[in-house]
Design goal:
The complex is a heterodimer of chains A (about 100) and B (about 475).
Chain A: H1 6-26, H2 30-54, H3 58-90
Chain B: H1 15-33, H2 37-57, E1 63-65, E2 70-72, H3 74-97, H4 105-124, H5 128-146, H6 153-184, H7 189-195, H8 202-220, H9 228-235, H10 238-263, H11 268-291, H12 296-317, H13 319-347, H14 363-366, H15 368-382, H16 388-402, H17 406-431, H18 446-464, H19 466-478
Antiparallel strand pairs in B: 1-2
The chains are: A mainly alpha (about 100), B mainly alpha (about 475).
Chain lengths: ~100, ~475
C-alpha cells in the first residue's frame, strides 16, 4: 500500500479547489479567470486519481482523469479564441470593460 | 495487471448520436466548398429530419450498452426527438436569420449538429463520465455558437460570459462527481443507486450531490446560478438564444432528472429540501425581474429562468407523477419558447434588433401573422387554457400537491399570476399601442415564418389534446 494517506491527497485537492475558486471570483482579467478554472479542473483530477488509487476499481477514476485533461485542452482552445475575439472588439480582456450589455 | 475487455456494443443505441455527429462533420467540410447558405440549411434540415425518423423507428427498443454507461430507452428517445425537432425549428429560423449577418453557415450548422449530438449523449447517459462528456460536447459547441456573430460586440460579450460561467460550473460538476465517486466507488448510476444507502462517507456524498446541484443549476439557469442568463440570452444571435433556452435547458434537465431520480433516488429526503428552496427562488426571482424589463428578448430570458423553476417543482415532487410532469412541461415549454424567440427574430433585422416594447407597438396590425402567433405564445407561457402552457402547469402543480408540497404549489400558482403582467404587456404593446408607420417593405421570411407557425400549431395541439403527449412523457419516464 502507498505511504501517503488518502486524507492528505484529498486535502491537496481541496486547497487547489479553494485557490481556483478564489482566483475565479477575484480576477477581472479573462485569462486570469481561465487559469482559475484550470485549477478547479485539476483539483478534481487530483481527487480522481487519489480515489482510484484507494478504491477497488482503479481504472474508472484514472480514465476519467484523462478525459478531464482532454476537456481542459479543448476548453482552453475555445476559451482563448473567444478572449481573442473580445480583445479585437474591445481592446481589453478585463471582464468589466466589456459592457455592450446591461448589467 | 488488469485486462481491459471490450464490452459487447449495441450499435443501434448510438444511432441517433452517430448520425448527428456525421451530419456535423459533413457540414463542416461542405462549408468550405458550398457558398450558398440556403443549400447548407436544407442539408442540415434533411439530415436532422432523417435522424429524427431513424430515432422514432427505435421506439420500443430497450438496451444498455457500452458496459452499462449508455442507455437506449424510451426516456432517451423522448429527449432525442425533442432535441432533433427543436434543432429543426432552429435551423428553419436560422435560414432566414443568418442572411446578412456574415456568420459562416457551414460552421454554424456544423456546431449546431454537434451541440445536438452532445445533448443526445446527455439524455442517454447512465454513467457520470458520459453525462460529463455529453455536457461538454454540447457546451463547447454552444459557447462558440453564442459568439458566432463576430462583428457584434454583444455576441462576443455573450460568448465570453457564457464560456467563463459554463467552465466554472464544469469545475463544480467535476469536483462533485469526484466526491460522489469517492463516497460510492462508482460512476455508473445503477451502482451509485445501490451504494448510496450504506456508504460510510455520507458527508462526502452529500457534499458531492450539492456540488452537482450547483453545476446543473448553472446549466438550466436556476436561481442563484442564473446571473449569466439575461446577458448571454440577450447578446447571442436570437436563433442561438432559442437553442439555449430550449434544447440546452432540456438537455440539462434530461441529465438532471436521470441522475437525481435514478442515481440519487435514495437520497431524495436530503436533496429535495435544497431543490425546494431553489425552485421557489427560481420562480419568484425570474418572474419579478422579468417585470422590470423593457427589452423583449431579455424579458424572455428571465421568463425562461422562471420556467426552469416550474420544472424544478416537478423534480422536487419526484415520483412517477413529478417525473412525467417534468418531461411533459419540457415538451410544452420548448414549442412556446421557440415560437416566442422566432417572433423576436422575425421583427429584428441586421443592424436593427427591434427588441424593445416600443418596437412592438402596433405590430399586431402591421404584421398580423406575427401578432396572432405571439399572442398564442404569450398566453401559453402565462398558462391560459386551452393552450399547452396551461396543461403543463396543471400537471406540475398537481404532482406537487399529490406529493404534499402544498406551499410550493401555491408559490407556483402565485408566480403564474405575476407572470401574466409582463406577458400581457407584450400583447398591449402589439395591439393597443399606436405604432409608427411602416418604413419600407418587410423582408420575405418564408423559413422563419414556417418555424413560427409550426411552433404555434404545436402549442395549440398539445394544449387541446394533452393526453396523448402526456402518455408519451409517462412512457419515457417509466422506462428509467
Amino acid at each position: 500500500m502507498p505511504g501517503v494517506p488518502l486524507q492528505h491527497v484529498l486535502l491537496v485537492g481541496l486547497v487547489l479547489f479553494a485557490l481556483g475558486l478564489y482566483t475565479v471570483l477575484t480576477r477581472r482579467n479573462a485569462i486570469g479567470i481561465l487559469m482559475g478554472i484550470e485549477l478547479l479542473l485539476n483539483a478534481a483530477n487530483v481527487n480522481y486519481v487519489a480515489f482510484a488509487r484507494y478504491s477497488g476499481a482503479p481504472t474508472d477514476g484514472q480514465i476519467f482523469a484523462i478525459f478531464v485533461v482532454m476537456l481542459a485542452a479543448a476548453e482552453a482552445a475555445v476559451g482563448l479564441a473567444i478572449v481573442l475575439g473580445i480583445y479585437r472588439n474591445f481592446e481589453s480582456i478585463d471582464v468589466d470593460a466589456t459592457h455592450a450589455l446591461r448589467h | 495487471m488488469e485486462q481491459l475487455l471490450l464490452p459487447a456494443i449495441d450499435w443501434l443505441a448510438v444511432l441517433p448520436v452517430g448520425l448527428t455527429s456525421i451530419l456535423g462533420l459533413v457540414l463542416l467540410a461542405l462549408g468550405l466548398f458550398v457558398d450558398d447558405d440556403e443549400t447548407l440549411g436544407w442539408i442540415t434540415l434533411i439530415g436532422l429530419a432523417v435522424t429524427a425518423v431513424a430515432t422514432a423507428c427505435l421506439a420500443g427498443q430497450k438496451s444498455i450498452t457500452f458496459n452499462g454507461t449508455f442507455a437506449l430507452d424510451a426516456y432517451a428517445l423522448f429527449f432525442d426527438l425533442l432535441f432533433l425537432v427543436a434543432g429543426i425549428v432552429v435551423v428553419l429560423m436560422s435560414m432566414t436569420y443568418l442572411e446578412g449577418t456574415g456568420i459562416p453557415s457551414g460552421d454554424y450548422y456544423g456546431l449546431l449538429a454537434f451541440a445536438i449530438a452532445g445533448m443526445i449523449v446527455m439524455a442517454s447517459a447512465t454513467d457520470l463520465i458520459v453525462v460529463f462528456l455529453g455536457l461538454e460536447i454540447m457546451s463547447i459547441s454552444v459557447y462558440v455558437l453564442a459568439g458566432a456573430w463576430r462583428t457584434q460586440l454583444r455576441s462576443n460579450e455573450a460568448a465570453m460570459k457564457y464560456f467563463l460561467l459554463g467552465a466554472f460550473a464544469t469545475g463544480f460538476l467535476l469536483y462533485g462527481i469526484a466526491l460522489v465517486y469517492g463516497a460510492t466507488g462508482a460512476f455508473r448510476l445503477d451502482r451509485i443507486a445501490t451504494a448510496v444507502g450504506d456508504t460510510p462517507n455520507r458527508t462526502m456524498l452529500i457534499a458531492g450531490v450539492a456540488m452537482l446541484i450547483i453545476a446543473f443549476g448553472f446549466k438550466v439557469a436556476a436561481v442563484p446560478f442564473h446571473m449569466w442568463t439575461p446577458d448571454v440570452y440577450e447578446g447571442a444571435p436570437t436563433t442561438v438564444t432559442a437553442l439555449m433556452a430550449v434544447a440546452v435547458k432540456a438537455a440539462g434537465f434530461a441529465a438532471f432528472v436521470r441522475v437525481f431520480l435514478h442515481g440519487f433516488g435514495g437520497l431524495h429526503a436530503d436533496w429535495s429540501m435544497l431543490l425546494w428552496v431553489i425552485a421557489a427562488l427560481t420562480m419568484t426571482v425570474g418572474n419579478v425581474l422579468a417585470l422590470a424589463q423593457r427589452n423583449v428578448k431579455r424579458m424572455l430570458a428571465y421568463s425562461s429562468i422562471a420556467h426552469a423553476g416550474y420544472i424544478l417543482v416537478a423534480l422536487v415532487a419526484s415520483g412517477a407523477a413529478g417525473g412525467t410532469a417534468a418531461l411533459f412541461y419540457l415538451l410544452v415549454y420548448s414549442f412556446m419558447t421557440l415560437g416566442a424567440f422566432g417572433v423576436v427574430a422575425a421583427l429584428g433585422s441586421v443592424g436593427e434588433p427591434n427588441e424593445t416594447l416600443d418596437d412592438y407597438a402596433g405590430i399586431g396590425f402591421r404584421r398580423p401573422l406575427l401578432g396572432v402567433t405571439m399572442t398564442i405564445f404569450m398566453l401559453s407561457l402565462t398558462g391560459i387554457p386551452p393552450l399547452a402552457g396551461f396543461a403543463g402547469k396543471f400537471y406540475v402543480f398537481t404532482a406537487a400537491i399529490r406529493e404534499g408540497y402544498y406551499v410550493l404549489a401555491v408559490i407556483g400558482v402565485l408566480n403564474s399570476a405575476i407572470s401574466s403582467a409582463y406577458y400581457v404587456r407584450v400583447l398591449i404593446a402589439m395591439y393597443l399601442t399606436p405604432g409608427a408607420e411602416e418604413h419600407g417593405r418587410v423582408a420575405r421570411q418564408p423559413y422563419l415564418l414556417t418555424s413560427i407557425v409550426v411552433s404555434a400549431v404545436m402549442t395549440v395541439v398539445v394544449g387541446v389534446f394533452p393526453a396523448l403527449w402526456m402518455q408519451l412523457a409517462r412512457f419515457g419516464f417509466l422506462s428509467l
